[in-house]
Amino acid sequence: MKGDFSTQRFNAGKHYNRVLKQQGRVDLDSDWNEQASIAQHHERSLILDLVGPAAGPLQNCGFGLGDAKLDGVTAAAGDFILQAGRYYVNGLMVENNKAVSYLSQPSLPTPDKLAVGKSYVAYLDVWERHITYIEDDSIREVALGGPDTTTRVKTVWQVRVLDSPQAATDANGKLLVSNAAAGVPAGATAPAPSPAAPPAVSECDAPLQPLLTWKSGTMTARLQPSDPSDTPCILPPESRYRGLENHLYRVEIHTAGDTTDPNEVPTFKWSRENGSVVTRWLATTGGTVQVANARGFSAGQWVEFTTESDDLMGQPGPLALITQIDGDVLTVDGPPALAKNAALPKVRAWDQTSSDTLTLTNGAIAIAPGQQGQLWIPLEDGIEVGFSAGQYRSGDYWLITARVATGAIDWPADGKGNPLALPPEGIAHYYAPLFVFDAEDKAPYVSLGKDCRCRFAPLACMAVQRTPVDVNP
Fold first, then answer.
1. Does residue 230 sit in the same domain as residue 184?
2. CA triplet 281, 287, 293: central angle to 5 degrees?
């Protein structure tokens, strides 16, 4: 969440269940946000315990395959209708307020059009999106005359489709997972299932296995160790954060990639203000960019140009370097053109810079192929980060809290004081299969093969068996 936050302190392992406000104390944003995170953690844990990873209410289960015409919405070839209702994915409530066609769903700008004659699995991709006044101006209180106050977190759902592999069954008709879904290399033979093997993956879940089992590379943060002293009687200076201000550093993957593939080297960008310096992008003329407010931007800074479509598709925008600022006009080295139909275009500031030892790749920092976390990349004021070998996805991020009073950063360490390698804090995507279907060339244009949704009845409607207790055995 790219908000102007001081820090984020929620830790599920501490098992706190409330934040209590004391009289006469300083009011902090982090306390408010921790209370919200505690409440959400308890709510999502309860939902997961009750209904499992993905399920919907029996009487109002959403995201089913609707008829070719439903509630005033009509499908055509290459499209289908999604029913209104609710569904719960990893404890998050997902709502479809009204019937909508797959190709016109609200939060997926460019769905893949269906090919007639092919089989598909439709699934939900659910994630949380940070919303500021730039995405929703109604957040601001007009009585204040313009300043923003709080931000919001929105649950985003996208219905996507994957090709459905031909189901393979054993001699007893039991469904077997395909080689690809099981991770067996092409041309190899999958081992025969043993009697003690886990249950086979269903035709609903098999195509989603690469998504469900995907793991990101990790990042480690530390303060640069001081050089040992040549004089035995002089102790080396302590490793400290050397900044003059408190900051919440955000390290975010810019271009996705795999460090083991020289042709797909991932890159990252960073911000000392959690990426919260952002403004509306109004126009581009030649090498100048008109913005709504240039406060927080400075010459020599890299800026990213994105739109609503980029944010919803998880795509980064191009980076360009500010060379001069005049009022609310930025002179930029190679700014992109602003499309006439672009929705909610914005410009965001980042703080990475090149140096004698660090060369930027299109404005971002490359994560070297095969890197094992031993190559430390300096950010500023003594803070360094290192990345493990692995895959990285655009938008994934880590946060580093730096404090002047202690000269330290907030990053977990092991029992020996060594900083831990951690997966990204977000953006977390959760997936749930919906239905298997075939695309056809005439109405209703799709035929349902299998409904993959789980449904649950209200607890009050379920029969409960009570066993009498004999108090006098």
1. no
2. 30
User: How crowded is residue 414: how many other Cβ atoms within 10 Å of its Cβ?
Assistant: 8
Residue whose structure tokens are 């300096």? 378
Return the H-helix or E-strand segment holding 180.
Answer: helix 179-182
Please state the rounded mean pLDDT for residues 174-182: 36
From 130, 150, 137, 132, select the one nearest 312 (Cα to Cα): 130
**Distance between terminal CA atoms of the chain?**
60
Q: Are 283 and 151 in the same domain?
A: no
Residue with tokens 């070719």: 68
Where would I find the beta strands (DSSP E) of 407-468? 408-410, 430-439, 446-451, 455-456
Torsions phi, psi for 31 (to 5 deg): -65, -45
**What is the per-residue pLDDT across 91-139, written as a single tens digit (0 to 9) for each?**
999 999 999 999 999 999 989 889 999 999 999 999 999 999 999 999 9
Name residue 332's beta-bridge partners. Answer: 322
Is the pLDDT at 201 greater than 90, yes or no?
no
Determine the pLDDT at residue 344.
Answer: 96
DSSP E strands, 132-218: 152-163, 168-169, 175-176
Please write the tens of the pLDDT for every residue from 401-430. Answer: 999 999 999 999 999 989 999 999 999 999
Collect all residues with Cβ–Cβ distance below 8 Å to 63 and sequence separation of at least 6.
56, 82, 83, 85, 87, 94, 96, 124, 159, 434, 453
C-alpha span between 293 and 303 (Å, rounded): 14
Cα separation, 312 vs 306, whole angstroms: 11
Same domain membership, residue 188 and residue 86: yes
Range of the domain at 89: 12-213+429-461
Kindly indicate the confidence band of residue 200, based on its pLDDT and cuts at 50, 70 and 90: low
Residue 366 C-beta-side C-alpha neighbours within 13 Å = 17
Q: Pick 91 or 180 by higher pLDDT.
A: 91
Residue type for 41, please?
H
Residue 469 covered by a domain: no
Say whether pLDDT at 194 is over 70: no
Amino acid 71: pLDDT: 84
Give the angle subtended at the CA of 303 by the CAs of 300 and 308, to the nearest 5°.
170
pTM for this prediction:
0.86
Same domain, 56 and 166: yes
Question: 167 and 62 share a domain?
Answer: yes
Query: Looking at the structure, do residues 242 and 208 belong to the same domain, yes or no?
Result: no
Q: In this structure, are residues 336 and 320 in contact, taking their beta carbons and an 8 Å threshold?
A: yes
Q: Which of 412, 416, 345, 352 is nearest to 379 (CA)?
A: 352
Residue type, 455: R
Give dist(CA 226, CA 340) in Å, integer.
53
